[in-house]
């Protein structure tokens, strides 16, 4: 029996192909890319060893720092929004709508599966000014406000990006957190109610602590995804105006494919990777501290 | 808390945590309606916020150029003409883009699931030294951003001339989906009693035969769920598709849509709206058939990923 369950030939046949392509296409490129961070140049013009020069360059490059700042700002604002809206909706589904929430859940979830490029182009039109006025500015005019040229400023583009991303993803986080809330035993909630916990007190002292694990994975998931934002901002306003809404991903992409700066591009990618690790680690650690003090 | 004296309370979830009025009187028709009114208003607003942009988009796809510029933006189209769709389909080369997306997504999904499920089976059901380390290596891959492997892969694909085919996309999607596939499938295999495979072994079945005749059939639902999750991440990807194809005839739907908006978007609103609508309606049809499974699948992928 042991022989069959540990049969070397079977293991090789079943695991071998996956392990081979994973090593060749993922592990080797990651190491290769890390190696490139110490070089300057590209395959055509040749590479030059610069040590940690690329990292020094990153932290004195205003465009890179602006991209880093935008990435962090975007990730923090959207993550907070996604979790807050998603959790609010999940509480609504479980405690107010109960079994009747099916239709609302289905409708609110639907934008999640839409391609981001399509959604970005749609929102570009919704907020448009000029001869093809979007409903948002038309609405502004009806209530007596001036039309806003949203995509002419970084703040305007950022605002549209936030509204769009929350519109697209709140239904997803609602379903995710809804599943977590359903796991809370009815008996626990009922006895808390008998003890006089209602409304906000019930949520604050019973529901939130009991749904902490799923809240935590949602935050990690949300932060990791928003740090990697790419297609949204590219399709919405191409990182503009003037690079004000360019995240690290897009800056890296341009560095490599517009300016053929492979070494520096790899450095930006590496810094993004480290950022994802640090943020995940930070969220886990701060959550653990909360658990022990509360 | 005055009314709750000696009445035995059955643990039901019907008492909403919304206020003390529930207990004081039996909620009558009118009172109940007004108490629920804010909730109703909120729900109507919520559903409108989610659906109106899509409705507006769909209506726009039937409008003529002059309707865009002269009529109010929320007016309905004067008639349902399909000219915009014809224009998007022919000049926008949407047909080619759709075909490319299908030609990339189907083989990527097939290879990813076959390799990933087999690997998870070898890592979870079979017993050998070092399997935990390899599983960990796969799982660590979930965290790595796509940008980290972009430059080396581009160099290799470009040098080998693969960038004039769809193979770079198929290969890259297959591998990028492996971490989540291996991780989730290993978790699902963990839930299957090991005795089933031991019994098959006693009956003289080898592990590879057990994989195909027991492992895969028992995992059918999990595989379908996972296939849906991965379908959306491949179909909706822009980064990989934009990087690894050099010809516009190889563009997938997302790349085509992006190029389309650059070339025609500023002047021809109708065809652009039609092109976006084709994307949205396609997903809507899929969603209407599979919404429960899609919701459950994406949620599982997120929490465990």
TrEMBL record, chain A:
Record's signal peptide: none
Cellular localisation: Cell membrane
PANTHER family referenced in this protein's UniProt entry, alphabetically: BLL4140 PROTEIN (PTHR43227), DIACETYLCHITOBIOSE UPTAKE SYSTEM PERMEASE PROTEIN DASB (PTHR43227:SF8)
Record protein name field: Multiple sugar transport system permease protein/raffinose/stachyose/melibiose transport system permease protein
Protein topology in the membrane: Multi-pass membrane protein
Database matches in SUPFAM superfamilies: MetI-like
TM annotation in the entry: 12-34, 74-96, 103-123, 158-181, 202-223, 262-284
CDD domains, per database record: TM_PBP2
Family membership: Belongs to the binding-protein-dependent transport system permease family.
Keyword set, alphabetical order: Cell membrane, Membrane, Sugar transport, Transmembrane, Transmembrane helix, Transport
UniProt keyword Lipid biosynthesis present: no
Residues of the ABC transmembrane type-1 domain: 68-283
PROSITE patterns in alphabetical order: ABC_TM1
GO aspect biological process, one term: transmembrane transport
Tagged with keyword Flavoprotein: no
Highest taxon above the source species: Bacteria
Location, primary (coarse class): membrane
Lineage, opening ranks: Bacteria, Bacillati, Actinomycetota, Actinomycetes, Micrococcales
GO cellular component, one term: plasma membrane
Protein species of origin: Conyzicola lurida
Automatic annotation (TrEMBL), chain B:
Ranges of residues in domain ABC transmembrane type-1: 98-290
Topology in membrane: Multi-pass membrane protein
PROSITE patterns: ABC_TM1 (PS50928)
Compartments reported by the entry: Cell membrane
Name of the protein described by the UniProt record: Raffinose/stachyose/melibiose transport system permease protein
Cellular component annotations (GO), alphabetically ordered: plasma membrane
Keyword ATP-binding listed: no
Transmembrane segments: 41-59, 98-123, 135-158, 170-189, 210-232, 272-290
């Amino acid at each position: 029996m042991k022989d069959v369950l540990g049969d070397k030939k079977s293991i090789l046949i079943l695991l071998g192909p996956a392990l081979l392509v994973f090593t060749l296409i993922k592990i080797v490129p990651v190491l290769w890319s890390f190696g490139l961070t110490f070089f300057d140049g590209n395959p055509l013009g040749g590479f030059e060893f610069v040590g940690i020069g690329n990292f020094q360059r990153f932290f004195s490059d205003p465009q890179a720092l602006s991209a880093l700042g935008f990435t962090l700002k975007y990730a923090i604002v959207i993550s907070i929004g996604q979790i807050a809206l998603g959790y609010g909706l999940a509480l609504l589904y479980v405690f107010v709508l109960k079994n009747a929430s099916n239709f609302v859940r289905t409708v609110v979830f639907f934008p999640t599966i839409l391609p981001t490029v399509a959604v970005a182009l749609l929102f570009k039109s919704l907020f448009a000014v000029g001869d093809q006025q979007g409903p948002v500015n038309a609405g502004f005019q009806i209530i007596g406000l001036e039309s806003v040229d949203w995509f002419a400023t970084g703040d305007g583009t950022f605002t549209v990006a936030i509204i769009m991303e929350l519109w697209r993803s709140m239904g997803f986080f609602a379903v995710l957190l809804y599943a977590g809330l359903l796991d809370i035993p009815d008996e626990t909630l009922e006895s808390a109610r008998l003890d006089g916990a209602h409304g906000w007190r019930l949520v604050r002292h019973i529901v939130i602590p009991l749904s902490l694990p799923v809240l935590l994975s949602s935050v990690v998931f949300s932060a990791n995804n928003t740090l990697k934002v790419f297609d949204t901002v590219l399709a919405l306003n191409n990182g503009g105006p003037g690079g004000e809404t360019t995240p690290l991903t897009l800056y890296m992409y341009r560095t490599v494919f517009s300016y053929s700066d492979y070494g520096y591009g790899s450095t930006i990618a590496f810094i993004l990777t480290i950022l994802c690790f640090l943020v995940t680690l930070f969220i886990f650690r701060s959550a653990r501290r909360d658990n022990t003090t509360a | 808390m005055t009314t709750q004296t000696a009445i035995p309370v059955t643990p039901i979830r019907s008492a909403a945590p919304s206020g003390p009025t529930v207990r004081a009187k039996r909620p009558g028709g009118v009172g109940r309606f007004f108490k629920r009114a804010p909730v109703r208003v909120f729900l109507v607003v919520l559903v409108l916020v989610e659906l109106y942009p899509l409705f507006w988009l769909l209506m726009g796809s039937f409008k003529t150029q002059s309707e865009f510029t002269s009529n109010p933006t929320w007016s309905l189209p004067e008639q349902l003409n399909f000219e915009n769709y014809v224009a998007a389909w022919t000049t926008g080369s949407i047909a080619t883009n759709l075909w490319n997306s299908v030609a990339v997504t189907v083989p990527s999904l097939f290879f990813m699931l076959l390799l990933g499920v087999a690997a998870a089976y070898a890592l979870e059901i079979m017993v050998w030294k070092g399997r935990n380390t390899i599983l960990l290596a796969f799982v660590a891959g979930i965290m790595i951003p796509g940008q980290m492997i972009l430059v080396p892969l581009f160099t290799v694909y470009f040098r080998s001339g693969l960038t004039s085919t769809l193979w770079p996309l198929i290969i890259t999607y297959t591998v990028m989906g492996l971490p989540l596939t291996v991780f989730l499938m290993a978790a699902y295999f963990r839930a299957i009693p090991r005795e089933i495979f031991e019994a098959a072994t006693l009956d003289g079945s080898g592990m590879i035969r057990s994989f195909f005749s027991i492992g895969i059939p028992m995992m059918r639902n999990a595989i379908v769920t996972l296939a849906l999750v991965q379908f959306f991440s491949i179909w909706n990807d822009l980064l990989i598709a934009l990087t690894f194809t050099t010809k516009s005839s190889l563009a997938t739907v997302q790349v085509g849509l992006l190029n389309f908006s650059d070339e025609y978007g500023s002047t021809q609103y109708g065809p652009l709206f039609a092109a976006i609508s084709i994307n949205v309606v396609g997903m809507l049809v899929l969603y209407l058939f599979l919404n429960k499974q899609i919701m459950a699948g994406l949620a599982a992928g997120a929490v465990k990923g």
